[in-house]
């Protein structure tokens, strides 16, 4: 009898109504949100609002940090990756400095799906610390970037310069398939193999930041 009572209490606790100010993850594929909330940039927000209040982020998930890594950005996917906008250059603010709160530049795409990374809802291109080599973007693969011929992997679609392209089947780098060229408009490249050695020229674009 005692076992039955404990089981009932456990089930009741599981189905108790959650606090209304708690934030929940969602996605385009599964936009499941509490009543009177809708899915915006992979977060459930109250109807009529367009920006999540990250003071109420669900801390039950290790990828949901109490503070976001940047003030001008948004999450991509459900594993804590953020797209953070901003300009950068080796002489002023390096690319990795666009990631805050313990986040670091993503070096691969294993925390986002290809569908999440290439979603048309992402405005701007967000660079990972993953340079590319290849005769053209179609055959882009992991390798050292370089001025004039360099390509860099990331997510989204570039604003203000050469359009982002997609590597052909069988190419790509560590689950990343979209590349933007060193065109002197969105990205200016040096021979440094790190993203910190390059310059992001248009603040509508930025970097991919991964959680600690």
Describe this structure in words.
The chain has helices at 2-14, 114-117; strands at residues 37-40, 43-46, 73-76, 81-85, 104-105, 124-133, 141-142, 151-157, 165-166, 178-181, 187-188, 199-200, 206-210. It is mainly beta. It has two domains: 18-60, no CATH class; 62-210. Strands 3, 4, 5, 6, 7, 8, 9, 10 and 13 form a nine-stranded mixed sheet that branches. The longest helix is centred in the N-terminal third of the chain and has 13 residues, at 2-14.
Provide a compact summary of the structure.
The protein is mainly β.
Features:
8% helix, two-stranded antiparallel ribbon, mainly beta, disordered N terminus, 212 residues, 2 domains, 2 helices, nine-stranded mixed sheet
How far is the first residue's CA from the last residue's CA? Answer: 46 Å
Number of domains: 2
Structural class by sheet pairing and helices:
mainly beta
Shape: globular
The number of distinct helices, counting runs of at least 4 residues, comes to 2
Amount of beta strand: 25-35%
User: Whole-number average pLDDT?
Assistant: 82
- Secondary-structure element string: HEEEEEHEEEEEEEE
Gyration radius, rounded: 20 Å
Helical content (DSSP H or I, runs of 4+): under 10%
Stretches with pLDDT under 50, minimum 5 residues: 1-21, 57-65
**Mind describing the biggest β-sheet?**
9 strands, mixed
The total beta strand count reads: 13
């Amino acid at each position: 009898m005692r076992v039955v009572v404990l089981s009932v209490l456990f089930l009741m606790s599981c189905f108790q109504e959650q606090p209304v100010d708690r934030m929940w993850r969602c996605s385009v594929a599964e936009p499941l949100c509490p009543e009177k909330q809708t899915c915006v940039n992979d977060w459930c927000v109250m109807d009529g609002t367009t920006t999540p209040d990250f003071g109420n982020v669900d801390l039950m998930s290790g990828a949901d940090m109490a503070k976001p890594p940047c003030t001008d950005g948004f999450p991509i996917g459900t594993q804590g990756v953020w797209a953070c906008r901003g300009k950068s250059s080796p002489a002023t603010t390096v690319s990795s400095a666009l990631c805050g709160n313990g986040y670091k530049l993503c070096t691969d795409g294993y925390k986002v799906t290809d569908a999440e990374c290439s979603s048309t809802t992402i405005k701007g291109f967000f660079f990972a610390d993953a340079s590319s080599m290849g005769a053209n973007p179609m055959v882009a693969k992991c390798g050292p970037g370089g001025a004039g011929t360099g390509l860099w992997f990331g997510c989204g679609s570039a604003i203000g310069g050469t359009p982002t392209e997609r590597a052909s089947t069988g190419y790509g780098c560590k689950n990343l398939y979209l590349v933007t060229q060193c065109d002197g408009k969105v990205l200016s490249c040096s021979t440094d193999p790190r993203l910190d050695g390059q310059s992001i020229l248009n603040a509508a674009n930025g970097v991919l930041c991964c959680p600690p």
